[in-house]
Amino acid sequence: MPKLIVAVDDEEDILKALSITLIKEGYNFKGFTSFSKLPDFLKKNTPDLFILDIMIPGVNGLDIYKELRKNARFEYTPIMFLSAKSDEVDKVVGLELGADDYITKPFSLKELSSRIKGIFRRIGNVDQKNDKTVVKGIKINKEGLEVFVDNKKTELTFAEFKILELLLNNKNKVFSRDEILDHLWGDNKLVTDRTVDFHIKNLREKIGKYGDKIKNARGVGYKFED
């Protein structure tokens, strides 16, 4: 069954271009120019990816993101932010909130399509035969994208989940920031290594006392120390 992609952007021309491109790529697509009609649509439909414009008047993309994450159905659904802003700070804010990708306008439809394929490829790679990792009170369920700290479920963004998975599966091995970015976004990364620091900071806080096990190898990168 084709994956369903939902976009919210106040520019109808962009929604039309997305519709033509993504349907041609084999996806189902639904576009909205505002948030108002989205809740009713979501009652009967479960998108596989959201594309949200940060700068929509009224209820903007960041607000929509927060509302979606409150719903257990969309807790781990990939979200991509669009924005006319090109400032690196805006990218970091979007990714720090937990977005899976961020692209600035104007963008090429070919690049967007490549980013989307990359997101779905990363999600597909999460489900493996060895679907559980247990280390020092932390259990990762790869199939369900779930993390338990001392048997208590802990909410992580997809990026935080992937970083924790990488570090736990390679205990005591130092990964550079570039290597972590490659693990997260592959060839599609357009952010600086500061983004990794934001994710690590949030990850340390969320896993509580085990956060101290994520060590910063000064000038190199990060590792989970066993």
TrEMBL record:
Residues 130-226 bind DNA. It comes from the Bacteria. SUPFAM superfamilies: C-terminal effector domain of the bipartite response regulators (SSF46894), CheY-like (SSF52172). Residues 4-120 form the Response regulatory domain. The modification 4-aspartylphosphate is found at D53. It holds the Pfam family Trans_reg_C. Residues 130-226 form the OmpR/PhoB-type domain. Keywords: DNA-binding, Phosphoprotein, Two-component regulatory system. CDD domains: trans_reg_C. Gene3D superfamilies: 3.40.50.2300, 6.10.250.690, Winged helix-like DNA-binding domain superfamily/Winged helix DNA-binding domain (1.10.10.10). One of its GO terms (biological process) is regulation of DNA-templated transcription. One of its GO terms (molecular function) is transcription cis-regulatory region binding. GO terms for cellular component: cytosol; protein-DNA complex. PANTHER family: PHOSPHATE REGULON TRANSCRIPTIONAL REGULATORY PROTEIN PHOB, REGULATOR OF RPOS. This is Alkaline phosphatase synthesis transcriptional regulatory proteinphoP.
